[in-house]
Each structure stands twice: as C-alpha cells, then as structure tokens.
Design a protein that fits this description.
Number of helices: 24
Number of domains: 6
Helix content: 25-40%
CATH superfamily of the largest domain: DNA ligase/mRNA capping enzyme
Structural class: alpha+beta
Distance between the termini: 12 Å
Shape: globular
Strand content: 15-25%
Number of strands: 25
CATH class of the largest domain: Alpha Beta
Bound molecules: 2-(butylsulfanyl)adenosine
Length: 671
C-alpha cells in the first residue's frame, strides 16, 4: 500500500516511464508511426500504473495514466483567454481574396509580395491549451472569444493532445498557449451516429456538432469514448521563446509534439495561395475530415503585428471558403428506392446542380413522414445540402417559388421492383417491401454482403449482381459460393478471365473475420461499429446466436433496438438456412484477434462511500483493466463498490440485485 517515503530509484523509474510513454503516445497518435508494439506499450503503461498504485503520492496531473478517470463535473468553470481568440474574415471568391492582398499592401505601403502560410480550415471546435513549463494545465473552448469553458479534463482524453510537451530539440518555454481545432473524422462520425441510432439516441447533424457535443460533456468518460482529434494551428501568449514567422511557430509546435496538419504550405504572393485553395477544393472530398475552406495567413509575425486586428478578426488572415454545400434546384420527380432490408425510401430526382464541387441529381427524403413534414412536391424549388459524405438531403422547400401545379407525393402501395403490396407497421416510420426475395432488396443485400468493409469480394458490383439475380443464378448470398466460371461466361460482359477473377474473389472471401461477417449479413441496425462490439464480446458466431435479448442488452453499446433485431434475425428460419448453407460452403470465420483479456473488460463499476484509497486511484485500477466507472447505478452496472457510509447508490444496487463489493473484495478482484 501507500508508503510514506518513495525510494529515489522508484521516483526515477516513474519519471523515465512517463517520458517513454509520452514519446510513444506521440509516435502512435500524432505521427501515426509507432516504434514499439502495442504489447510493449501496454507493458510500460502497466508498470507505471503499478508504481503509481504503490506510491499514489507520485501521481501528477500530466501522468499518462491521468487521461481518463476524472470525475464528472457539476458545471464548467469559465476561463478568460489571456489574449482574445479572434475569428476570421471570410472571402468567397478569387476577387475578394486578391482584394485582401491588395488591401494589406496598401495598409503597409508596400508593393512587395507577402509570404503566406496557407492552411486547411478545419470544420471543428476551436480550443486553447495552456502549457506551464511544458505541462498541460488548462484547456478551454473558444466561447465568445474572450471567455470560454474550462474543458481540461475532456481535452486530456484526446490522445493527440500532449499532456507534456516533448523536450528533445527545443527548450520548453515557461508559458505557451496553443490553439487548434478539435474535430472528428468522417468515418468515426458515421460510426458514432450509427451507434446512436441503434441505441435510439438522436444522431448528430454533422461532424462539427458531434465534436462540439462530445467536448462539452460534464463526464469526461463520455468524451474519452468519442474519437476526437486535434490539429494545432497557432499560439496565444508565450513567455520564454520568441518567434519570427507563423511557419516557425508551426514547425516548433511540431517539434514539441503537437499535431500539425501536413497539408499546410508556405508560398510567396497571393497567386499560389489561390491555387492552393483550388487544389484543396478538389481534394477535400477525399480527406478523412471536413474542411470548409483554406486560411491564408501573413507569415511574418512582425508584419502581423503592424497590420493589427479589427474588432473581431485579425487584418493579417483570411478564410477563403469553398463553394457552399447547400444549393437550390428543382424537383423533377419523386421516386422510391428499395433498399437491402426492403426499406422503401422516397428520393427526389432533381435538375442537376453542383453542390460543393459535385454534381447532384438525387436527394433522399428519408421516409413518407419526412416528405409530408417538409411538404416536398414535384415541381418545387428546394434547398438541398450535402452533410458529411452522406447522400444529399432536401433541407426545405422554397415555398415562394412553388408553381400552382406542384404535385404532392403519394407513397406507392406496391413495391416498384417486385409489385408486392408494401407494408408500414403501426408506429414505424419506414415503409417496407415484405418480400424477402424482392429483386431490389436482394441485389442490394448481396451488394452489401460483397462490400469492401464486409466480405470484400472484389469486382462484384451492382450491375453484375443484378445479372446474377435476373438470371436466377443467385437467390440468396449463400448461392454465391456455388457459382462456377461456367455459370458466368454465358452472361453479358463476361469473358473467361473476368469470370475467373470473380470466382476467385468469391472463394477468397470465405476466410473472414467474425466482425466483417456479422456486418455482411445485413442485420437491421447492425453497422460496422456494432458488429465489432459484438464480435469482441461474444468471440464466436455460435455464442452470439445463443445469446438472448437480455444478454445482448448487457453488452456495452448495444441498445434494445439492435438486440431485438439480432434476436429476430437468428430466429427467422430463412436466415438459419442461409447460415447453414454458408457454413456448408466452407466459410471460415476468424475470431477477433484480441478477445477481452481482462475479466474486468467492459464491466461498469460505481463507487459509493469512503474508501481508504482515493477515488482517482480506485478508478485508475478499473480503467487500467478495461473496465469503466460510472457515477450512477443502473441496470448496466456490474459492481457497486461500497466504502464506509455508503449513499443512496448502495440501496439502489441492492434493489437492482447488483453485486456489491467492500473495499477488500474490490482490491482482490482488481489485483
Ligand atoms: S486561425 C486569428 N487557422 O476558424 C486567427 N483558424 O473563423 C484565428 N479554424 O475559430 C484562427 N482551421 O476555429 C485558424 N487553420 C486554421 C483554422 C482555423 C479552422 C477555425 C477556428 C476559428 C475559426 C475562425
């Protein structure tokens, strides 16, 4: 247990471990280029955990063990920024951007071209990180620019934010304020929304809202579970280090271990800065995150100072925004689309319009109620938008422009593909084609099965699948594995070679990880993230199939909607038959690489009453073993640890029949 004096070699080892862990954290998260294995990293972390457990007096706020586990707050404190966090003036055209350059030249009475640093304008949440003698002490949101919220505990959970600046090459200043943008990658945003929908929670409208919502959580454990990242782009106040240019600032921040966007460039004159904007505008849809323009900054800090600031924005910087991702166009028709689960989705077919660099002709209207709520009619002029990388959607109708003969939409009564009468169960929003053999649903189901993130059958596109279905060769995904080259060669567009390639790709897909396989099945509400959770939890298909509704809802991240859908899927005889056929075809399902090693992984603990060890320490013991700590008792709680004078949580735990441990039993369990 805690000793009063710490042997110097232990203190030295703790210091050494922390430096190593900070460095490897930086290699892994910031540079994306680790130099040790995950296991080696875990060993370092475990050793540090153990030493800190034995000598809690050594724990410091910047220890790598302190990223998670801080207790929830009642409310955020206010932080006054030492220097206001300004916003940027916007430009939407090349002309306005040239005008900005000329204005600066006039202001400084110079004809000489400026050096400009050009940066992607990240669409996230602006934050400020304060480092005192290299240690992160306060992190805050921008707020109104003068005052923000103290979200230090939340920012600490973001692995790309250094808790301790790297010391290698550059001396550490006494004070450094770093500014940057916290954001969420698009793929992670999609996964998060998928999880939220599956759990009946509202989805976030875009990655920026998701990042902002995640950062403004009073419970840092929630933030820790959200995949946030940061790119740093500037500094506020500094003491103990002088800079001459923005470029030097960025390079030095990089050397200190901060994450800097690799797309940042430096140019001379406004011409190349404009060219950079055009280049990024083309590149933006291939980026893993959202950007809404480029920021052009005068490189020289002396010139920046001479140029000064206006009320809300500096004179030396400009946000040159990309073309809007919202446009108006006219609805030519409203058709319905049959999805792989048989869901029938109304889609607006529109006059082609360019939205954010892409020509769009269709937008989703989601479902019958949405069409009614937005009152979209054929002939209407509508505002459409592309949010994230999802299909464009109709935002609203421009009613002023509605022609007198605009025609309201009526949901068809029969499936446009197989003509089976459509159904819409009471209380549901989605209309469906109930025919499991419906061509439309079947083709999309197979397309989903073959997708890169599912069974990854290379070359099996929608057109080929439609041919296979139309020719009666495939009536179920399991039929794919019975196909031979001879089946394919007579079909249009097939030569021997291409037939062979597809058959090979199909055969190759037989070796598949459990999570991909689960995702491939196309079970309603079961997306990639949920498939991963289930694979990790159950380890085998058999174990998952054997689980009932209650067991499923016990899995962290699985709500009643997904659980119900899984139970229904495995109970359906058609699906059982499909699985049997797939297994007979020789499918080899690979169990997840890292099954839950620790018996505490995924378990939720709640503490009540006073313990002899600190709450922080108790939490660290749990989180280090993959468990979680929650502040309130619910049906999802696995253990309640009760110290002396327990509160109402004790009674609640008894009421719910949750295992209650005293401190000794708890320590035995975790050790
Ligand atoms: S510089 C005075 N650089 O844009 C300089 N801002 O409209 C102000 N942003 O609040 C910030 N990427 O959240 C700067 N590379 C970048 C940026 C960036 C995104 C955001 C930032 C700021 C907002 C200003």
């Amino acid at each position: 247990m805690a000793s009063t004096t710490v042997p110097p070699e232990v203190a030295a080892r703790v210091k050494d471990l922390r430096e190593q862990i900070h460095y490897h954290n930086y290699r892994y998260y910031v540079l994306d280029d680790p130099v040790i294995s995950d296991d080696e990293f875990d060993r370092l972390m475990r050793e540090l955990m153990r030493l800190e457990e034995e000598h809690p007096e050594l724990i410091t706020s910047d220890s790598p063990t302190q990223r998670v586990g801080a207790p929830p707050l009642e409310k955020f404190e206010t932080v006054v920024h030492r220097q206001p966090m300004l916003s940027l003036e916007n430009a939407f055209s090349e002309a306005e951007t040239r005008e900005f350059d000329e204005r600066l030249k006039r202001f400084l009475r110079t004809a000489e071209d400026f050096h400009y640093v050009v940066e992607p304008k990240m669409d996230g949440v602006a934050v400020e990180l304060v480092y005192e003698n290299g240690r992160l002490t306060v992190g805050s949101t921008r707020g109104d620019g003068v005052r923000g919220e103290n979200v230090t505990q939340n920012l600490k959970t973001i692995h790309t934010i250094p808790l301790q600046m790297l010391k290698d090459q550059e001396a550490i200043p006494e004070l450094l304020e770093v500014r940057g943008e916290v954001y969420m990658d698009l793929a992670e945003f999609k996964k998060l929304n998928e999880q939220r929908r599956a759990q009946g929670e509202p989805a976030f409208a875009n990655p920026r809202n998701a990042a902002a919502g995640s950062l403004r959580q009073l419970d840092p454990n929630i933030t820790a579970a959200r995949p946030l990242k940061i790119y740093c782009y500037g500094i506020g106040e500094v003491a103990g280090r002088a800079f001459e240019t923005q470029w030097e600032v960025l390079q030095t921040l990089k050397a200190w271990g901060f994450r800097i966007n690799p797309l940042i460039e430096r140019h001379t004159g406004i011409g190349p800065a404009i060219a950079y904007h055009h280049r990024l505008e083309h590149q933006r849809h291939g980026l893993p995150y959202e950007i809404d323009g480029v920021v052009i900054k005068v490189d020289s800090l002396i010139l920046q100072e001479r140029l000064g600031t206006k009320t809300r924005s500096p004179r030396w910087a400009l946000a040159y925004k990309f073309a809007a991702t919202q446009e108006t166009t006219r609805v030519l028709n409203i058709v319905v689309n049959v999805g792989r689960t048989g869901a029938v989705t109304p889609m607006a077919v529109m006059e082609p319009v360019e939205v954010g660099g892409v020509t769009v002709t269709r937008a989703t209207l989601h479902n019958e109620d949405e069409v009614a709520r937005k009152d979209v009619r054929v002939g209407d002029t509508v505002l459409i938008q592309r949010a994230g990388d999802v299909i464009p959607e109709v935002v609203k109708v421009i009613l002023e422009e509605r022609p007198p003969d605009a025609r309201p939409f009526q949901m068809p009564t029969r499936c446009p593909v197989c003509h089976t009468p459509l159904v819409r169960p009471a209380g549901e929003k989605v209309t469906r084609c109930p025919n499991p053999g419906c061509g439309g649903a079947l083709v999309r189901g197979i397309f989903h099965f073959a997708a890169k993130t599912a069974m990854d059958i290379d070359g099996l596109g929608e057109k080929i699948i439609a041919q296979l279905v139309d020719n009666g060769l495939v009536q179920d995904v399991s039929d794919l594995y019975k196909l031979t080259e001879d089946d394919l060669i007579p079909l249009e567009r097939f030569a021997e070679k291409s037939a062979q390639n597809i058959i090979n790709a199909i055969q190759k897909s037989k070796r598949v990880t459990l999570e991909r396989f689960l995702y491939a099945l196309g079970i309603r509400y079961l997306g990639e993230a949920t498939a991963q959770l289930l694979a990790r939890h159950f380890g085998t298909l058999e174990a998952l199939m054997a689980a009932d509704f209650n067991e499923l809802t016990q899995v962290e991240g699985i709500g009643p909607t997904v659980a119900q859908s899984i139970v229904e899927y495995f109970n359906e005889p058609r699906n059982q038959e499909r699985l049997a056929k797939l297994q007979a075809a020789g499918l080899e399902i690979i169990p997840p690489e890292r099954p839950a090693v620790s018996p505490l992984a995924g378990k939720t603990f709640v503490f009540t009453g006073a313990l002899t060890i600190s709450r922080e320490e108790a939490k660290a013991l749990v989180t280090a073993r993959g468990g979680k700590v929650s502040s309130s008792v619910s049906a999802k709680t696995d253990y309640v640890v009760s110290g002396t004078d327990p509160g109402s949580k004790y009674a609640k735990a008894r009421e719910l029949g949750i295992t209650i441990l005293d401190e000794a039993a708890f320590l035995e369990l975790v050790r």
